[in-house]
Automatic annotation (TrEMBL):
The keyword Plastid does not apply. This is Riboflavin synthase. Its EC number is 2.5.1.9. Residues 1-96, 97-193 form the Lumazine-binding domain. It comes from Lentzea aerocolonigenes. One of its GO terms (biological process) is riboflavin biosynthetic process. Catalyzes the dismutation of two molecules of 6,7-dimethyl-8-ribityllumazine, resulting in the formation of riboflavin and 5-amino-6-(D-ribitylamino)uracil. Homotrimer. PANTHER family: RIBOFLAVIN SYNTHASE (PTHR21098:SF12), RIBOFLAVIN SYNTHASE ALPHA CHAIN (PTHR21098). The keyword Protein biosynthesis does not apply.
Length: 206
């Protein structure tokens, strides 16, 4: 589990294409300071398992499912990436509950700059729209953010200077893909409620 509070901005050192997979090596002195084989590190919001740690870098395998659902399919050597270690029990939950299981990708549509913050418009895939609500939480490239406005095909988030300076969201341009993870609580509520709502609807139709 993660909190969506990015610890550092790392960069991709190498990408190796494998059959139905890829192996990436990422530089990040903070997240590798106590990392070991088998640990979890979120890369742009994708939970990956550490295979090897060496000289402030770690290696992780990216399976086909992850490549299909996330922007890691297009990751390249030199790319900047948001990094976060798995949350430790007892620490402050600064963001929200993040699994590192990307639900899909969105696209940066526009950016509106203000003096001390920036509003970013992000395209919302139709299958995820029902999970996104105004003032709710969403994870964008591993960053825990609050939804400002939402419609059927896009939502906006407001980025403070710290987020702009210390994460990839300060560098994303219109047209760039970003990883999205909706609030897992919304998905569980839907899973539990839908059968009951359908049963009620069936009774009313009789």
């Amino acid at each position: 589990m993660f909190t969506g509070i990015v610890e550092e901005l790392g960069h991709v050192v190498a990408v190796q294409d494998l059959p139905d997979a890829a192996r990436i090596r990422v530089s990040g002195p903070i997240v590798t300071s106590d990392a070991k084989h088998g640990d979890s590190i979120a890369v742009n919001g994708v939970c990956l398992t550490v295979v090897e740690v060496e000289d402030n870098t770690f290696t992780a395998d990216v399976m086909r499912e992850t490549l299909t659902r996330s922007s890691l399919a297009k990751i390249a050597e030199g790319d900047k990436v948001n990094l976060e270690r798995a949350a430790a029990v007892g620490q402050r939950l600064g963001g929200h509950i993040v699994q590192g299981h990307v639900d899909g990708t969105g696209t940066i549509l526009a950016r509106e700059k203000a003096e001390h913050w920036e509003m970013v418009h992000i395209g919302l895939p139709p299958q995820l729209a029902r999970y996104v609500v105004e003032k709710g939480s969403i994870t964008v490239d591993g960053v825990s953010l609050t939804v400002v406005t939402v419609s059927e095909d896009q939502f906006t988030v407001s980025l403070i200077p710290t987020t702009l300076d210390l994460t990839t969201l300060g560098h994303r341009l219109p047209g760039d893909a970003v990883n999205l993870e909706v609030d897992v609580l919304a998905k569980y509520v839907e899973r539990l409620a839908v059968p009951h709502l359908r049963a009620i609807a069936g009774e009313e139709a009789q």
